[in-house]
Design a protein that fits this description.
This protein is of the alpha/beta class. It has helices at 2-9, 35-42, 51-68, 85-93, 103-111, 128-137, 147-158, 200-208, 230-239, 267-282, 294-297, 329-333, 420-424, and strands spanning 21-22, 28-30, 33-34, 46-50, 72-78, 97-100, 119-121, 141-144, 166-173, 195-196, 213-219, 247-249, 287-290, 301-313, 315-320, 340-341, 349-354, 363-370, 378-382, 403-407, 410-415. The protein folds into two domains: 2-50 and 298-424, Beta Barrel (Lyase, Ornithine Decarboxylase, Chain A, domain 1); 122-292, TIM Barrel (Alpha-Beta Barrel). It is built from 13 helices and 21 strands. The strands form three sheets. Strands 4, 14, 15, 16, 17, 18, 19, 20 and 21 form a nine-stranded mixed β-sheet that branches. Strands 5-6-7-8-9-11-12-13 form an eight-stranded parallel β-barrel, surrounded by seven helices. Strand 17 (349-354) and strand 18 form a beta hairpin. The N and C termini lie far apart (61 Å). The structure holds pyridoxal-5'-phosphate (PLP).
């Protein structure tokens, strides 16, 4: 039995939360909580979060930032990755800043306790109400994306009677390819985000000529799930013609391991690369901002499902009680995940883990290896903390799953499962 457990333990890849292990019962546990028991007590599907994992990754960023020394490095959590209030509260308590990309995310960040001065607003199509809300809350930085926004924001700050200036950054499209999936690459020249490099001088001039706006610096974000440090080093080089500036924001994008074969750079190396390139290329500055999303939350979470049916139609289909409603990423851009049976990890049975939704593309893991799956088994997919809860939806009347924080053997629901009443809640009769 001891050997079996040891063998099974070897199958938990780096995609799993830091606390994940196979317990004496032979089941996977996270934060000291047995995922099989959790599924029976709290139902499935559910997002199970290793609270300490999130904290430790935030601390890894902060420690790395401290090690690279001056200029000050601040780390902003990109709220879009996991916009759950409890997650935001955790990062606010750890002392991170927050990057928001809409009025809704701004409301969540403020409700979670981020000081307004540590909030950065992004967006390539910010509405007037979103900008008004940001000004009203006196957030730290608005990242301007286009000339229309300069005009819109200028008009709004022009109406202020308090004489306060809004601090802003200008987002540049650095023409640095992120070496990632085209749908999550943002740094290429032909992008919907930010100013083309040749337009940046005119944008700087326009912002400087707008009373009520104070230009603090430039921003660039080249994409997401980037598994090499090389493109990160190139961002500062692309922005160097616009130095000096007091503030540089070099975005997020560090990739994570979704499976055993992916080896992302360490957080400390990511921070060191960005800080060194900023020092070399951008000269003296007061503040270097980083905006990780995925790297803070992806691996800290697993989704648990119940297997509802197993059948062979050429492939062996293992259908679970969730799918594209709780994890849209495989459907959206072919994102890869691993799967395991929570109470029989390991195994060599080749199968397709399918969701329950009315689309043939609703496949969570196309090439899973499981241990003889049966209806009633509890299955988990690791590394589901980033852009899953965020993109969850009600397709087929799905009730969006709860978020359960686990730490030291105690589980607590921090966001409840939706109910059928929630599905009807917006109806006007
Ligand atoms: C402006 C900006 N900053 C940060 C991020 C976070 O990226 P990641 O989750 O890859 O770290 C994003 C993601 O799209 C973004 O658009």
């Amino acid at each position: 039995m001891a050997t079996e457990t040891k063998e099974a333990q070897a199958t938990l890849s780096a995609a799993y939360p830091r606390s994940a292990r196979i317990n004496a019962r032979g089941a996977i546990e996270v934060g000291g909580c047995d995922l099989g028991q959790l599924a029976r007590e709290l139902g499935t599907p559910a997002y199970v979060v290793d609270e300490q994992d999130l904290r430790s990754r935030a601390r890894a960023y902060l420690d790395a930032a401290q090690r690279v020394g001056l200029p000050e490095v601040a780390v902003a959590f990109a709220a879009k990755a996991f916009p759950c209030t409890a997650v935001l509260e955790l990062f606010a308590a750890e002392g991170l800043w927050c990057d928001v990309a809409s009025g809704g995310e701004l409301a969540l960040a403020l409700a979670a306790g981020f000081p307004a001065q540590r909030v950065i607003l992004h967006g390539n199509a910010k509405s007037r109400p979103e900008l008004e809300r940001a000004l009203e809350a006196a957030i730290g930085l608005i990242v301007i994306d286009n000339f229309d926004e300069i005009a819109r924001l200028g008009e709004l700050v022009g109406r202020r009677s308090d004489g306060e200036q809004q601090r802003v950054l200008i987002r540049a499209t650095p023409d640095v390819a992120g070496q990632t999936h085209a749908k999550i690459s943002t740094g290429q020249a032909d992008s919907k985000f930010g100013f083309a490099l040749e337009d940046v001088p005119a944008a700087i001039e326009a912002v400087r000529a707008t009373p009520g706006l104070q230009l603090r610096g430039l921003h660039a974000h080249i994409g997401s799930q980037i598994l090499s440090l090389e493109p990160f080093g190139a961002i500062a080089e692309a922005l160097a013609p616009f130095a000096p500036m007091p503030v540089w924001d070099l975005g997020g994008g560090l990739g994570v391991a979704y499976s055993a074969d992916q080896q992302p750079p360490a957080i400390s190396d990511h921070v060191a690369t960005l800080a060194a390139s900023a020092r070399e290329q951008l000269g003296e500055h007061e503040l270097l901002l980083l905006e990780p999303g995925r790297a803070l939350v992806a691996n800290g979470c697993v989704t648990i499902y119940t297997v509802e049916s197993v059948k062979r139609n050429v492939s062996l289909y293992v259908a679970v009680d969730g799918g594209m409603s709780d994890n849209l990423r495989p459907m959206l851009y072919g994102a890869r995940y691993e799967a395991a049976l929570v109470e029989r990890p390991g195994g060599e049975c080749e199968c397709v883990v399918a969701g329950k939704h009315c689309e043939s593309g609703d496949i969570i893991v196309p090439h899973a290896r499981l241990a003889e799956p049966r209806a009633g088994d509890i299955l988990c997919t690791p590394a589901t903390g980033a852009y899953t809860f965020a993109m969850a939806n009600n397709y087929n009347g799905a009730l969006r799953p709860p978020v359960i924080f686990c730490a030291e053997g105690t589980a607590r629901v921090v966001c409840r499962r939706e109910t059928e009443q929630d599905l009807l809640a917006r109806d006007v009769r």
